[in-house]
Design a protein that fits this description.
alpha/beta, 7-stranded mixed β-sheet, 7 helices, 7 strands, 30% helix, 24% strand
Length: 201
């Protein structure tokens, strides 16, 4: 596999069709559930969940009263999102799109972008481009928050992202928090960095 394969929707579609999405734990990640309750986004505000997969984090955000757009370019992911949102009795807007296009599709639109290791799934050569797209879709003073994956292993996806590189990549944001999450799933404990960073107001 080339690191550029991850930029193709069909790469991820094949994983969903094979039911091989090992990252999917069937519920919202505990650190993200906590972050959503911290009030980082104004009550009832707009949140984009990027690389949403089957939408556990998007569903949790909607359940808390946020207006949620769940973005993925694998149709199979959004099919799973629809099932899970319906089961939870919440409304989530599905958006079939490449996350790199989000800044152009919804410029300065969202109060928050929720990151659940999507950055670690994109090609490492495109990380700066990805974060530029996230900044472009956020309102002034909007917050980019969630989890990065610092697992320390070669290869990927997910591709390792250690704190020093993450800080360098986030230089266009005001970083309020970048630290090891203390309440991760057991198998990820010590390897997830929770991030809270804002665009200029």
């Amino acid at each position: 596999m080339s690191t550029e394969d991850v930029s193709r929707a069909d790469y991820w579609s094949a994983i969903y069709r094979a039911n091989d999405a090992g990252w999917d734990k069937g519920r919202c990640s505990p650190p993200i559930a906590r972050l959503l309750r911290e009030g980082l986004v104004p009550e009832g505000g707009t949140i984009a969940v990027v690389g949403c997969g089957r939408g556990w984090e998007a569903v949790e955000a909607a359940r808390l009263g946020y207006r949620v757009t769940a973005v993925d370019f694998a149709p199979e992911a959004l099919e799973g999102l629809a099932v899970n949102a319906r089961a939870a009795g919440v409304s989530v807007e599905p958006l079939l799109a490449d996350v790199f296009d989000l800044g152009a599709l919804r410029p300065k639109h969202f109060d928050g972008v929720l990151e659940h290791t999507c950055l670690c799934a994109v090609s490492p050569t495109r990380r700066a481009e990805y974060l530029a797209a996230m900044a472009a879709t956020l309102e002034p003073g909007g917050v980019y928050f969630g989890l990065l994956y610092a697992h320390g292993r070669p290869g990927g996806p997910p591709f390792d992202l250690q704190e020093p590189e993450a800080r360098a990549l986030l230089r266009g944001f005001a970083v309020e928090r970048l630290q090891v999450a203390q309440d991760s799933f057991d198998m990820r404990r010590g390897h997830e960095l929770e991030v809270v960073a804002r665009t200029a107001a």
